[in-house]
Every structure is written in structure tokens, then in C-alpha cells.
Amino acid sequence: xxxxxxxxxxxxxxxxLSTLERDGRFGGAPVDLADGYIHLSTAAxxxxxxxxxxxxxxxxxxxAVDLSAYAADTVRWEEARxxxxxxxxxxxxxxxxxxxxxxxxxxxxGAVKLPVAG
Length: 118
Prior knowledge:
With 118 residues, the chain is an alpha+beta fold. The protein contains three helices and eight strands. A three-stranded antiparallel beta sheet has the order 1-4-8. The chain starts with 6 loop residues before the first strand and ends in a 15-residue tail after the last strand.
């Protein structure tokens, strides 16, 4: 049994979230399309991901993705930033696999709050 989390997080712009809601699927941001997979982060990696890749951007949203809803060969944990293992989705992001989403908010310490379902 893996000790890797079964939930990962995708940061989306308002336009990208609208696409996901409208189409029920999202093929990826420009960086995802260029790299051939959808970049995701664990809860522990999320705040640093936002700081590094979304600094200064407004109207961002966070989607919590149930990784267990995907075939095992479409989710790969690959080494990236600082030798950390990140979840990469080699498939489209399906709305049916998103267990919660909402606007990107921070707590009093500046950490990104995780979206809460229902």
C-alpha cells in the first residue's frame, strides 16, 4: 500500500475553471500542454507551487483531485523541484474526479487553504 496521498491539487485560472465546469474536462494549462501532463501538487507542496508559478496573479482557484479515480498508469509521481516527488496526470482532468474546489484563499500565515467539499 502506498503512503502517497490520494488527493492532489490543481491551481486554475478563472477561465480554466470555467472550461472544467462547462465541458466537464480540462486538457491543461499551456505549461501542462507543453510538458505532456497536468501538473498537480500535494497539500504540502501547494503553497510553494502558488508562490513560484502564480505570483501576482489574481482570481485563482484550487481543485482537489481524487487520484484514485484515475487508472494507475495515468498518475505518475515524478521528481521535480528540489528532488520532491510530484503527482503528474497523463490524462485530462475530469470534473467527476474533482472532490472540492473553490477560490484560492490563504490562512493567517500565508499558506494556501485547501478547498472543502459540501
